Amino acid sequence: MSTPSLWQHANFRRLYASTISFSLGTQIYQLAMPLILYQLTQSAGVMTGMRAVELLPNLLLAMFIGVWVDRIDRGRWARFAIVGIVVLTGMQAMLLDNGARALSFFFITAFLLMTLHYLYAICRMGMLKEMLPEQLLLPATGQLTVLSQVFSILGPALAGAVIAIRMDLGLWLPMVAMMLAAWLLRDLQLPVRKPDPDGFWNEWRDGWRVLVANKPLWHMAWLVVIINGSAGVVDVLFLFRARDQLQLGAAQVGLMYGVAGIGGVIGGLVASRLRQRFGLGRLLALELGVEACSMLLLAWGNSIPLLLLALSINSFCTVIGNVCVWGYRQESTDSRYIGRISGLTGSLFKLLMPVSLVLSGALVGSLPLAWILSACAVTHFLLVVGTRVSAVYGVR
């Protein structure tokens, strides 16, 4: 089926419209929060610590959320999750005036916010699986990823600009965007998930059985564990390097990330075509090698044009990898198990990130940032070899 066939599905059109607003709010928030923390504390440790806390729900709860999502009305609970995000973001905005004294509250709400984000993400994956035929799952994943990348251009630029004007706007604007996203999801007609008569824990064990039996996805999950651990460190520490070492302002950082997001948009548009040409496994190995080169440029580059090029390449490769991994997970998983498989792989994908972020934040004071970023690049080069010898490499 062709990509235009997607737009014949009314539920997908509604989900797409909601995702426009959700992605804008998410992208503004994701850059605004670390910039806000930097203005409050000027500490790399706090920035990496916050990022680690945000990953804990994926690590600790996703595998259980996935079982639950296979039992519920995914459209309704996606709306509930977004409403919860609106409430918590508003609470953060109201407490900004307390400055660094509110850090503990920010850490607690960050955990809750990411729990709700992950509930929404698994619900959305399940809704896609329910509303579309298998042939349209990869094009749909690509379209939604491109949409996210479009707003990764607008979001950071807008976040940097509004924070430069008034710090709390970096939280109020995402809150309004999320309210619109919840409203656009109304009236979705999706089946209610019925509990397995064998019970919750049997469903959870069935999820593991299905995942391990899918050897390419199982190997892919463990590769992504290391990929995310390395890439997560680069994301946070380069942002700190831009603000602390290169002395770039919030508006400049936002604009730079926004322009670099064009690479991600291009990656989302060509991912399906590149997969058809190279095959999924070979494409993953190739993008990991190129991404490693971009990390070296981010570690040692000092000129704005060079850093823009590196960020654009990094964004391009990251999106291609995401489309391939998420698309294959959708394609190779039966609808009955999609929530469980999404939750289990989601937990595995983030397994190393909290540890790597906390460790890198602690090492910033004793090691040059360029060395830490270069170590992440070397890790990605080793992952190319890991992909080559795994079951992933043979996947078309």
TrEMBL record:
InterPro entries: MFS, MFS_trans_sf
Transmembrane residue ranges: 20-40, 52-70, 77-96, 102-123, 144-163, 169-185, 217-240, 246-271, 283-300, 306-328, 348-365, 371-395
Membrane topology: Multi-pass membrane protein
Primary location recorded for the protein, binned into one broad class: membrane
Localization per record: Cell membrane
Keywords, ordered alphabetically: Cell membrane, Membrane, Transmembrane, Transmembrane helix
Protein name: MFS transporter
